[in-house]
TrEMBL record:
It is found in: Golgi apparatus membrane. Belongs to the sulfotransferase 1 family. 3'-phosphoadenylyl sulfate binds at residues 99-103, 180, 188, 305-309. It is a single-pass type II membrane protein. This is Sulfotransferase.
């Protein structure tokens, strides 16, 4: 230091001064002046730096140690998404069917660390296609190398334009179709609608154009969705069966680990979700995931799942079974899988 009280260029600063040279960031946390945000230039004097810096408490909080990594199956999907990775168009889609078990498959597979899934249904390939692929991509969760992006919209399977649109996005897209006995699926569909619109006609009244003659009204959406063989024809024009996985909604209830094992194999990820991760919820009549390190409570489907179905005349059920029988057989033959709905 010269006689004027200034430090000469190149001279070292004493330790007592270095201990005071700190500044505060925008959150009021102290940082050493070695950071570019604090240092204005290599020749700035200590007194000038102290005047420009905000006061901070040298004894304030220090950065906490990094948190320990979550266990392998502690999914990050239900916490704030990390600001790492890239938003990508999905490599796999759950395309159907409504009331078949799609939400269960989505929630179960989201527990896998190599799968990142959009929780809501974007309805891009049926209702929002005009918004463009950039909008669609912006909705996706961020993924890092090796992770798969997945989304679910059950109405895709019955949307005639969806196969072509998905093919134009990527011909390599993997497609998951969760199917269920079309009669029980229709009753479940009606039960859900009835809970929202209690004044709708009876199930029997909506199912038939003429019940006496046994003429089923296939224009009613709840009946039409169950014509799986007809909808499948649109998909096979663009995608081979090897890119499609048909999950049984019935087996998903009695053997969730087995069906999810098939899903994991299809997606090309390791079988980490196994029978030890499930338990059967007697109240809902459906399997749930056991609690994980990231959740203190088990993960079950919401209140809208597991509703008690409305009671339907057994004769009506028999008539609908006969109606669906030829479509079911054709579907079994097309996919090479017998779902035993008869």
């Amino acid at each position: 230091m010269d006689n004027g009280g200034q430090w000469k260029r190149g001279s070292s600063r004493p330790r007592w001064l270095l201990s005071l040279l700190c500044c505060c960031d925008d959150l009021g946390r102290s940082r050493l002046l070695g950071a570019p945000r604090c240092l204005r230039g290599p020749g700035a004097g200590g007194q000038k730096l102290l005047q420009k810096s905000r006061a901070c408490d040298p004894a304030g909080p220090t950065p906490s140690a990094p948190a320990a990594p979550a266990p392998r199956l502690a999914s990050a999907n239900h916490s704030a998404p990390p600001k790492l990775g890239t938003k990508r168009l999905p490599q796999a889609l759950i395309v159907g069917v409504k009331k078949g078990g799609t939400r269960a498959v989505l929630e179960f597979i989201r527990a896998h660390p190599d799968v990142r899934a959009l929780g809501t249904e974007p309805h891009f390939f049926d209702r929002n296609y005009g918004r463009g692929l950039d909008w669609y991509r912006s909705l996706m969760p961020r993924t890092v190398g090796g992770q798969i992006t997945l989304e679910k919209t059950p109405s895709y399977f019955v949307t005639q334009e969806a196969p072509r649109r998905i093919f134009n996005m990527s011909r390599d897209t993997k497609l998951i179709v969760v199917v269920r006995n079309p009669v029980t699926r229709a009753i479940s569909d009606y039960t859900q609608t009835l809970s929202k619109k209690p004044d709708i006609p009876t199930f029997e009244g909506l199912s038939f154009r003429n019940r006496t003659l046994g003429l089923v009204d296939a224009s009613w959406n709840a009946i039409r969705i169950g014509l799986y063989a007809l909808h499948l024809e649109s998909w096979l024009r663009y995608f081979p069966l090897a890119q499609m996985l048909f999950v049984s909604g019935e087996r998903l209830i009695v053997d969730p680990a087995g069906e999810m094992g098939r899903v994991q194999d299809f997606l090309g990820v390791k079988r980490l979700i196994t029978d030890k991760h499930f338990y059967f919820n007697k109240t809902k009549g459906f399997p749930c995931l056991k609690k994980t390190a990231s959740s203190l409570l088990p993960r079950c489907l919401g209140k809208s799942k597991g509703r008690t179905h409305v009671q339907i005349d057994p004769e009506v059920i028999d008539q609908l079974r006969e109606f669906y029988r030829p479509y079911n057989i054709k579907f079994y033959e097309a996919v090479g899988q017998d779902f035993r709905w008869e």
